[in-house]
Write the structure tokens for this entry.
Amino acid sequence: MVNRITPLLLFIGFVWAQTDFDKLVLKDGTTYFGEYSKIEGKIVFFKPQEAFGFQPIPVKLIRRLELKEGQIIIDGGKVKNSLTLDEYQKLSTKEKAIYDANLYNVKKWALYGPTSIIVFMGSIFLHKVLIGGEFWESPIFLGGSPAASLTIPYFVLNSKEKFNFPKSILTDSEKEIYEQA
């Protein structure tokens, strides 16, 4: 029985593993966790976990730079377009919402469906092993298992995302437009 549950526990531990550091991946495959500071010209300033100061790294050596909030600064060796504050303020509410949405990595949500299925099938398996019988014979399990299989992956994937309106959006109608976009 332990051999059957161990892979499930390992998977859950893998899914819950989180870091509170920015992630820098070089083109040679080396990965560093640490703190991103800024980009000046074609140089990125990044402080790895064990370093005492920020290190200058040429953009051409970087494959990907992802902030702990999920925002991608460099992807495929190219700096993503970033607007100055004045340019950002001139955007409409809808344009701000689209611009802000493009700053974050939403590819992780492709894992939502498979993860939900895995959680559901795992709960069916555990029910059969621990309790015995078919899962549809238990009304509590029949309702709780699908609910858990949808909510657990949602909270795991959504754990780092914090939704804040830009300070320039003040009215409820602007907030509604921003959310819809």
In short: Helices lie at 2-16, 85-90, 93-102, 112-130, 139-157, 172-180. Confidence is low (pLDDT under 50) at residues 13-17.
